[in-house]
Amino acid sequence: MKYATNEYQKGCWLMRIKKYFYHLFVMVRKDFLLEVRSKDVVLPVFIFSFLVVVTFNFALESTPNTANLIVPGILWVSVLFGAMVGFGRMFLSESEQGAFQGLLTAPIGRDVIFFGKVISNVLFLLLIESILLPILVVLFNVTLSPLYMLYVSIPALFGISLSGMLFASISMNMRAKEVMLPILFLPVVVPIILGAVESTYAVMNGDNLDQFLKWITLMIVFDLIYSVLGPVSFTMIVED
Protein backbone atom coordinates (compact mmCIF):
# COMPACT_ATOMS: atom_id res chain seq x y z
CA MET A 1 0.00 0.00 0.00
CA LYS A 2 2.82 2.37 0.91
CA TYR A 3 4.64 1.50 -2.34
CA ALA A 4 1.50 2.23 -4.36
CA THR A 5 1.10 5.60 -2.60
CA ASN A 6 4.70 6.55 -3.35
CA GLU A 7 4.28 5.59 -6.99
CA TYR A 8 1.09 7.66 -7.20
CA GLN A 9 2.83 10.71 -5.69
CA LYS A 10 5.76 10.26 -8.03
CA GLY A 11 3.38 10.09 -10.99
CA CYS A 12 1.62 13.27 -9.84
CA TRP A 13 4.92 15.12 -9.62
CA LEU A 14 5.93 13.96 -13.08
CA MET A 15 2.61 15.11 -14.48
CA ARG A 16 3.03 18.53 -12.85
CA ILE A 17 6.55 18.90 -14.26
CA LYS A 18 5.41 17.91 -17.75
CA LYS A 19 2.48 20.32 -17.52
CA TYR A 20 4.77 23.14 -16.34
CA PHE A 21 7.22 22.70 -19.22
CA TYR A 22 4.37 22.36 -21.69
CA HIS A 23 2.94 25.71 -20.55
CA LEU A 24 6.45 27.18 -20.76
CA PHE A 25 6.82 25.87 -24.31
CA VAL A 26 3.44 27.38 -25.26
CA MET A 27 4.49 30.78 -23.90
CA VAL A 28 7.77 30.76 -25.82
CA ARG A 29 6.02 29.54 -28.97
CA LYS A 30 3.45 32.35 -28.66
CA ASP A 31 6.14 35.03 -28.42
CA PHE A 32 8.07 33.44 -31.30
CA LEU A 33 5.02 33.37 -33.60
CA LEU A 34 4.12 36.94 -32.69
CA GLU A 35 7.65 38.04 -33.52
CA VAL A 36 7.64 36.19 -36.85
CA ARG A 37 4.43 37.97 -37.85
CA SER A 38 5.11 41.46 -36.48
CA LYS A 39 8.93 41.72 -36.13
CA ASP A 40 8.39 44.11 -33.22
CA VAL A 41 11.43 42.98 -31.21
CA VAL A 42 14.25 41.52 -33.29
CA LEU A 43 14.31 44.15 -36.04
CA PRO A 44 14.35 47.27 -33.78
CA VAL A 45 16.83 45.64 -31.39
CA PHE A 46 19.17 44.62 -34.21
CA ILE A 47 19.04 48.04 -35.88
CA PHE A 48 19.75 49.79 -32.58
CA SER A 49 22.60 47.39 -31.68
CA PHE A 50 24.09 47.67 -35.17
CA LEU A 51 24.03 51.48 -34.99
CA VAL A 52 25.83 51.34 -31.63
CA VAL A 53 28.53 49.11 -33.17
CA VAL A 54 28.94 51.42 -36.17
CA THR A 55 29.09 54.49 -33.92
CA PHE A 56 31.85 52.96 -31.81
CA ASN A 57 33.69 51.95 -34.97
CA PHE A 58 33.86 55.58 -36.10
CA ALA A 59 34.38 57.03 -32.63
CA LEU A 60 37.29 54.79 -31.61
CA GLU A 61 40.51 54.41 -33.53
CA SER A 62 41.13 50.69 -33.47
CA THR A 63 44.60 49.21 -33.95
CA PRO A 64 45.74 45.57 -33.80
CA ASN A 65 47.00 46.26 -30.27
CA THR A 66 43.81 47.86 -28.98
CA ALA A 67 41.14 45.84 -30.83
CA ASN A 68 41.08 43.06 -28.24
CA LEU A 69 40.63 45.66 -25.51
CA ILE A 70 37.68 47.55 -26.97
CA VAL A 71 35.70 44.90 -28.90
CA PRO A 72 34.37 43.03 -25.80
CA GLY A 73 33.01 46.28 -24.39
CA ILE A 74 31.50 47.32 -27.73
CA LEU A 75 29.80 43.94 -28.16
CA TRP A 76 28.14 43.83 -24.76
CA VAL A 77 27.23 47.51 -24.63
CA SER A 78 25.53 47.05 -28.01
CA VAL A 79 23.67 43.95 -26.80
CA LEU A 80 22.72 45.67 -23.53
CA PHE A 81 21.33 48.81 -25.17
CA GLY A 82 19.53 46.76 -27.78
CA ALA A 83 18.05 44.53 -25.08
CA MET A 84 16.57 47.55 -23.31
CA VAL A 85 14.72 48.40 -26.51
CA GLY A 86 13.45 44.82 -26.71
CA PHE A 87 12.21 44.67 -23.12
CA GLY A 88 9.76 47.47 -23.67
CA ARG A 89 8.67 46.11 -27.06
CA MET A 90 7.84 42.67 -25.65
CA PHE A 91 5.28 44.12 -23.26
CA LEU A 92 4.09 47.05 -25.39
CA SER A 93 1.87 45.26 -27.91
CA GLU A 94 0.25 43.05 -25.28
CA SER A 95 -0.35 45.84 -22.74
CA GLU A 96 -1.78 48.30 -25.29
CA GLN A 97 -4.48 45.90 -26.53
CA GLY A 98 -5.25 44.33 -23.15
CA ALA A 99 -3.75 40.98 -24.13
CA PHE A 100 -1.46 40.97 -21.11
CA GLN A 101 -4.40 41.22 -18.73
CA GLY A 102 -6.02 38.36 -20.58
CA LEU A 103 -2.81 36.37 -20.24
CA LEU A 104 -2.91 36.87 -16.46
CA THR A 105 -6.36 35.24 -16.33
CA ALA A 106 -5.03 32.06 -17.95
CA PRO A 107 -4.80 29.00 -15.65
CA ILE A 108 -1.00 29.06 -15.50
CA GLY A 109 1.47 30.25 -12.91
CA ARG A 110 2.84 33.77 -13.02
CA ASP A 111 6.33 32.29 -12.97
CA VAL A 112 5.53 30.50 -16.26
CA ILE A 113 4.71 33.85 -17.87
CA PHE A 114 7.90 35.38 -16.50
CA PHE A 115 10.22 32.56 -17.57
CA GLY A 116 8.48 32.30 -20.94
CA LYS A 117 9.27 35.96 -21.61
CA VAL A 118 12.84 35.48 -20.40
CA ILE A 119 13.51 32.46 -22.63
CA SER A 120 11.96 34.20 -25.64
CA ASN A 121 14.16 37.23 -25.08
CA VAL A 122 17.28 35.07 -24.70
CA LEU A 123 16.55 33.40 -28.06
CA PHE A 124 16.03 36.76 -29.75
CA LEU A 125 19.26 38.16 -28.27
CA LEU A 126 21.19 35.04 -29.30
CA LEU A 127 20.03 35.59 -32.86
CA ILE A 128 21.08 39.24 -32.78
CA GLU A 129 24.46 38.46 -31.21
CA SER A 130 25.13 35.79 -33.84
CA ILE A 131 24.72 38.52 -36.48
CA LEU A 132 26.71 41.17 -34.60
CA LEU A 133 29.74 38.95 -33.96
CA PRO A 134 30.68 38.49 -37.66
CA ILE A 135 30.22 42.24 -38.17
CA LEU A 136 32.63 42.97 -35.30
CA VAL A 137 35.11 40.41 -36.62
CA VAL A 138 35.12 42.15 -40.02
CA LEU A 139 35.19 45.72 -38.72
CA PHE A 140 37.91 45.23 -36.10
CA ASN A 141 39.79 42.26 -37.59
CA VAL A 142 39.64 40.08 -34.48
CA THR A 143 39.22 36.34 -33.95
CA LEU A 144 36.67 34.64 -31.71
CA SER A 145 35.97 31.03 -30.81
CA PRO A 146 32.25 30.38 -31.50
CA LEU A 147 32.10 27.56 -28.94
CA TYR A 148 33.70 29.59 -26.15
CA MET A 149 31.51 32.57 -27.01
CA LEU A 150 28.47 30.31 -26.59
CA TYR A 151 29.70 29.43 -23.09
CA VAL A 152 29.90 33.14 -22.32
CA SER A 153 26.71 34.23 -24.05
CA ILE A 154 24.25 31.79 -22.45
CA PRO A 155 24.72 32.91 -18.80
CA ALA A 156 25.23 36.54 -19.86
CA LEU A 157 22.02 36.75 -21.90
CA PHE A 158 20.03 34.91 -19.23
CA GLY A 159 21.23 37.39 -16.62
CA ILE A 160 20.36 40.36 -18.83
CA SER A 161 16.92 38.91 -19.65
CA LEU A 162 16.04 37.85 -16.10
CA SER A 163 16.75 41.26 -14.61
CA GLY A 164 15.48 43.18 -17.64
CA MET A 165 12.11 41.45 -17.80
CA LEU A 166 11.54 42.11 -14.11
CA PHE A 167 12.19 45.84 -14.36
CA ALA A 168 10.31 46.07 -17.66
CA SER A 169 7.23 44.71 -15.88
CA ILE A 170 7.77 47.18 -13.03
CA SER A 171 8.04 50.17 -15.35
CA MET A 172 5.28 48.98 -17.72
CA ASN A 173 2.54 50.99 -16.00
CA MET A 174 4.70 53.98 -15.07
CA ARG A 175 4.21 57.30 -16.78
CA ALA A 176 7.91 57.73 -17.66
CA LYS A 177 8.65 54.07 -18.37
CA GLU A 178 11.24 54.85 -21.08
CA VAL A 179 13.31 56.67 -18.45
CA MET A 180 12.62 54.44 -15.46
CA LEU A 181 13.64 51.17 -17.14
CA PRO A 182 17.32 52.16 -17.68
CA ILE A 183 17.51 53.77 -14.22
CA LEU A 184 16.28 50.60 -12.51
CA PHE A 185 17.90 48.06 -14.80
CA LEU A 186 21.46 49.27 -15.47
CA PRO A 187 22.79 49.20 -11.86
CA VAL A 188 21.50 45.66 -11.33
CA VAL A 189 22.99 44.23 -14.54
CA VAL A 190 26.51 45.58 -13.95
CA PRO A 191 27.91 42.26 -12.55
CA ILE A 192 26.59 40.38 -15.61
CA ILE A 193 28.12 42.85 -18.06
CA LEU A 194 31.41 42.84 -16.16
CA GLY A 195 31.56 39.03 -16.33
CA ALA A 196 30.58 39.00 -20.01
CA VAL A 197 33.19 41.60 -21.01
CA GLU A 198 36.01 39.95 -19.06
CA SER A 199 35.08 36.49 -20.39
CA THR A 200 34.93 37.76 -23.98
CA TYR A 201 38.31 39.42 -23.54
CA ALA A 202 39.73 36.08 -22.37
CA VAL A 203 38.19 34.31 -25.39
CA MET A 204 39.70 36.82 -27.81
CA ASN A 205 43.13 36.38 -26.26
CA GLY A 206 42.96 32.61 -26.68
CA ASP A 207 42.87 31.77 -22.98
CA ASN A 208 41.75 28.34 -21.84
CA LEU A 209 38.25 27.83 -20.48
CA ASP A 210 39.63 27.42 -16.94
CA GLN A 211 41.14 30.91 -17.05
CA PHE A 212 37.80 32.68 -17.47
CA LEU A 213 35.65 30.13 -15.65
CA LYS A 214 35.51 32.43 -12.61
CA TRP A 215 33.69 35.08 -14.66
CA ILE A 216 31.24 32.53 -16.03
CA THR A 217 30.68 31.30 -12.47
CA LEU A 218 30.00 34.87 -11.35
CA MET A 219 27.34 35.26 -14.04
CA ILE A 220 25.74 31.92 -13.17
CA VAL A 221 25.53 32.91 -9.48
CA PHE A 222 23.72 36.13 -10.37
CA ASP A 223 21.51 34.20 -12.81
CA LEU A 224 20.42 31.93 -9.95
CA ILE A 225 19.73 34.91 -7.71
CA TYR A 226 17.67 36.66 -10.40
CA SER A 227 15.84 33.42 -11.28
CA VAL A 228 14.57 33.26 -7.69
CA LEU A 229 13.89 36.95 -7.08
CA GLY A 230 12.53 37.56 -10.60
CA PRO A 231 9.40 35.34 -10.65
CA VAL A 232 8.57 36.12 -7.01
CA SER A 233 8.75 39.87 -7.60
CA PHE A 234 6.96 39.55 -10.94
CA THR A 235 4.07 37.69 -9.26
CA MET A 236 3.75 40.43 -6.63
CA ILE A 237 3.85 43.16 -9.31
CA VAL A 238 1.15 41.69 -11.56
CA GLU A 239 -1.07 40.83 -8.61
CA ASP A 240 -1.07 44.49 -7.61
Estimate the helix proportion, in percent. over 70%
The 3D shape can be described as: globular
Question: What is the ordering of alpha helices and beta strands?
Answer: HHHHHHHH
What is the total tally of β strands? 0
Mean pLDDT: 81
Distance between the termini: 45 Å
Using the CA coordinates, give the radius of gyration: 20 Å
Share of β-strand residues: under 5%
Question: Counting H and I runs of at least 4 residues, what is the number of helices?
Answer: 8
- Low-pLDDT segments, ≥5 res: none
Structural class: mainly alpha
Largest sheet data: none
Detailed description of the structure:
This protein is an all-alpha fold and 240 residues long. 85% of the residues lie in helices and 0% in strands. The chain is built from 8 helices and no strands. α2 packs parallel to α5 (110-140), α5 crosses α8 and α6 (146-171) packs antiparallel against α7. It is globular and about 55 Å long.
